[in-house]
Every structure is written in structure tokens, then in C-alpha cells.
């Protein structure tokens, strides 16, 4: 596949140790990772797009990103406005829906992947589709069949595993899935097709609940699928990679809320002593929550990683103020937003943050 990448100045030269790490990890084969949290608005899409861009533009990785969220936020972010307007004017755009549609028509898996490119982000893309939501029922129904050993159900459940298999044949270094915020049937199929998952978290109590939900729910799904495969008429029809896949946890990234970081005082909150006391209590509460993350992760995700081998904390994303919306309106990654003044400083921070997360991601994937 031809790659036309915009030449960029990353601002931070790649250390030779980072380059070696990258070479070592990619030599181990293609990795499929999803970025998942059933809580909405925790920064999943922003992280997928910007981490994939960091790997593609600065490490020269070949990355395929799949927009598995019917909201299509990622697609809207990484394609130029004119481009996606043109695509979605068509009532039947070629998208992630095209991957799953043949199955619902009883035709098996599609023959090829509908791949486009995001030039500004440097990666390839399977665009999202609001019609993906219509397939939630099919996947839910076929899941019941899969658990009872039905081949049709198992095949449908592995629809995204087939996407990953095809992507691996195309020699990508990484395949990333962005997902909507739910523990529904689409996300089950995605999670069951992955080698790895990353959990983006907001610093709030609901993110702790999300960690608990993910650990227990994914564990149950894996056991149910295993039972289904063992009950199936002919397990040899199921690819051995699908039978032996082991989903592993790479780590979590925390996303800071502007008003809760305690870095910049809120002028309204410090107007009175009472306001100041309230602000301090809130900041303290959030610090307590984030201090609790490592133990929660260790307890609830212990089956998915080796706590002696890896530190699952991949990094903290501070609130980058207006850099985030500007990156959306320019349809470029945060590391390449154009602008002077305060943008110079914010862009520099973004470059440090995403380089740091990319390196930690590579370290943990390499050690798993
Ligand atoms: N580092 C950041 N600094 C400032 N704003 C950010 C940052 N990261 C994300 N945001 C903003 O937070 C909002 C939510 O982010 P995002 O869409 O990535 O979350 P999400 O978890 O994918 O949401 P959903 O659950 O709806 O898919 C967006 O408006 C985004 O611009
Ligand atoms: Mg999202």
C-alpha cells in the first residue's frame, strides 16, 4: 500500500533506545490493541488518534486504525471535513459496516478490507459508520448461538478477528480499534479479537467501577466463548489463532480534568475562604482516587497481565486546554497543531506526553 505522509518536524528527536525498542517490538509481529472503557468521554478517541499518529509519524510505524464506534468521532477527527462530508453523502459508504454486512446476509466474511488513509495523522483507517449500531442485535443474537457451539454464531463473533487477520496479512505494525462506551455486543466482538487492551481513564470514581466491570465481564466472555468452541461440531474449522488468543492488558492512561487538576486555581473557586476549602477538598478527593488506581488495577485486572513484569501506568494526559478543540478543527494530531503563543507551549507538552505514552506502550507490549 502506498503511503503518502506529510513531512513533519516532531520537535523531539527519537532516542536510539526508543528506535531499538520499536524495532524489537515490531519484529515480534503485528499487535492488535483496543482502547476501551465503558465510561464515555474519558479520552479514548483522542488517545487512539494521537498515539497512532505518534507511532506513525515519528516512529514510521505502519498503523491501521479501525473506528468501531457508531458515533464516528475518530473518523470525523482524522479526515478533512470535505473528505468525510463527501464520503457520508453517499447513503452506502464503504466503512466498518461493509466488514460486517456480508455476515448478516449469510455470505461469510468480506473479501478485502475497506481501507482509507488519514494523511495528516499518517495512518490507514477503516472509517466508522452509524449503521454499525444496527448490527448490535445480530451480534447479540449470534452470541447466544456461539455460546451453545453454533458455527454461525462463532463466525459472527469473530468478525473483527477476521479484520485483524487480514490486517496482519497486510503487514501493519499495529492495528488499533477505537470503541464506543459500552459493554455491548459490538465491543464484545472487538475485545475477543484483540491481543491487547488499553484503558483510558478519567480521574473519577466511575473509572474505578469501569475497571471492575471490564475485568469481570471480559473474563466471563472468554470462558463462555471457550465453552462454545468446545461444544461446536467441528472445532477444527475455527482458526487456531482464534482458539488460542489470549487478551492481555497493556496498561491505563489517566486523563486530567481541567477544573480538577489543582494546577491552575479556578478564579471563581478561590473568591472566598469557603470556596478555597471546597476546592482543596475536591482536589484531595481526586488525588485519593488516582492514588487508588494501581491497587484497583492489580486486583481487578490481575488475570490479564503480570504485575511482576510490567507497570501498567502508561502515563497521565494533562488537560491541554484549547489545543484539543484546535486539533479537532484543524484535523491534525495535537503534536502538529499550528499556532503560536500559548499553542507553542501546549504543543510541546503534547509531544512529550504522546512520546512518553508511545514508549511505555511499546515497553509493555514488548514485555507481555
Ligand atoms: N488532553 C486533552 N486536553 C483537553 N481536552 C481533551 C483532551 N483529551 C480529550 N479532550 C476532550 O475531551 C472530550 C472527550 O474526549 P474523547 O472524545 O476522546 O473521549 P471518548 O472517551 O472517546 O468519548 P466517547 O465515550 O464518547 O467515545 C473531547 O471533546 C476532547 O476534545
Ligand atoms: Mg470516543
UniProtKB/TrEMBL annotation:
Superkingdom classification of source: Bacteria
All residue ranges annotated as the AAA domain in the record: 34-228
UniProt-listed InterPro entries: AAA_dom, DNA_Partitioning_ATPase, P-loop_NTPase
Pfam families: AAA_31 (PF13614)
Record-given protein name: AAA family ATPase
The species this protein was found in: Methylorubrum rhodesianum
Amino acid at each position: 500500500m502506498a503511503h503518502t505522509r506529510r513531512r513533519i518536524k516532531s520537535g523531539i528527536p527519537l532516542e536510539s533506545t526508543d528506535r531499538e525498542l520499536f524495532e524489537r517490538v515490531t519484529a515480534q509481529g503485528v499487535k492488535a490493541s483496543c482502547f476501551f472503557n465503558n465510561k464515555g468521554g474519558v479520552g479514548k478517541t483522542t488517545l487512539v488518534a494521537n498515539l497512532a499518529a505518534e507511532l506513525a509519524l515519528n516512529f514510521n510505524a505502519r498503523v491501521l486504525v479501525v473506528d468501531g464506534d457508531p458515533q464516528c468521532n475518530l473518523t470525523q477527527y482524522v479526515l478533512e471535513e470535505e473528505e468525510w462530508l463527501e464520503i457520508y453523502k453517499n447513503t452506502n459508504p464503504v466503512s466498518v459496516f461493509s466488514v460486517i454486512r456480508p455476515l448478516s446476509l449469510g455470505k461469510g466474511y468480506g473479501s478485502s478490507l475497506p481501507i482509507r488513509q488519514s494523511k495528516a495523522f499518517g495512518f490507514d483507517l477503516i472509517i466508522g459508520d452509524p449503521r454499525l449500531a444496527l448490527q448490535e442485535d445480530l451480534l447479540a443474537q449470534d452470541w447466544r448461538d456461539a455460546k451453545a457451539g453454533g458455527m454461525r454464531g462463532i463466525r459472527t463473533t469473530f468478525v473483527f478477528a477476521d479484520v485483524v487477520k487480514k490486517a496482519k496479512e497486510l503487514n501493519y505494525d499495529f492495528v488499533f480499534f477505537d470503541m464506543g462506551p459500552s459493554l455491548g455486543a459490538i465491543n464484545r466482538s472487538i475485545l475477543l479479537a484483540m491481543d491487547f487492551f488499553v484503558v483510558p481513564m478519567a480521574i473519577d470514581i466511575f473509572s474505578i467501577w469501569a475497571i471492575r466491570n471490564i475485568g469481570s465481564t471480559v473474563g466471563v466472555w472468554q470462558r463462555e466463548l471457550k465453552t462454545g468452541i468446545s461444544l461446536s461440531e467441528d472445532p477444527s474449522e475455527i482458526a487456531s489463532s482464534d482458539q488460542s488468543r489470549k487478551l492481555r492488558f497493556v496498561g491505563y492512561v489517566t486523563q486530567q480534568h481541567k477544573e480538577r487538576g489543582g494546577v491552575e486555581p479556578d478564579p471563581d473557586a478561590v473568591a472566598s475562604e469557603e470556596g478555597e476549602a471546597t476546592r482543596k477538598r475536591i482536589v484531595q478527593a481526586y488525588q485519593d482516587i488516582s492514588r487508588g488506581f494501581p491497587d484497583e488495577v492489580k486486583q481487578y485486572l490481575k488475570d490479564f497481565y503480570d504485575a511482576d513484569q510490567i507497570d501498567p501506568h502508561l502515563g497521565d494526559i494533562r488537560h491541554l486546554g484549547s489545543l484539543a478543540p484546535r486539533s479537532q478543527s484543524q484535523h491534525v494530531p495535537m503534536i502538529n497543531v499550528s499556532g503560536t503563543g500559548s499553542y507553542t507551549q501546549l504543543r510541546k507538552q503534547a509531544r512529550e506526553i504522546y512520546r512518553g505514552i508511545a514508549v511505555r506502550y511499546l515497553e509493555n507490549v514488548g514485555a507481555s
